[in-house]
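Bug #77: duplicate submission created two jobs. Keeping one. Sequence:
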Amino acid sequence: MAVDLEQAKQALENGIAEAQELLKDPGKIDALLRQLEEKLKDIPVAGSVLADIPQMVAMIKGYITGKYTNVSVKVIATLVAAFVYVVKKQDLINDEIPVLGQVDDVAVVAAAFMLSEPELKAFAAWREENAQAEAQA
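Kept job's structure:
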């Protein structure tokens, strides 16, 4: 069953109120990102790469806000460079080519993950410790 654009827009509109409530609580946003990571892992072929994106974003945000600084500037720059590549229109393979157009984007994000993996694992552990501490508080 295909979902058309109007149905997708309606689904987003239906979720706005809940999203606004979530935005008031950083802990709930963090939990949502964790759930998103798990859900993305189930996507065939690119799922494992896509599942790491929310963690990458969370680490960048943590670094920018000063909440997590135990990471090198080079790692943060590598992750940001990968996201810039995905967003910019100067791809190795044109995004307008169905499926194939996203292969280079996934490859660049995967390379950024591999280059940053130890730091991302350390960040994941830190995130888990903070989540447990907040749950106990």
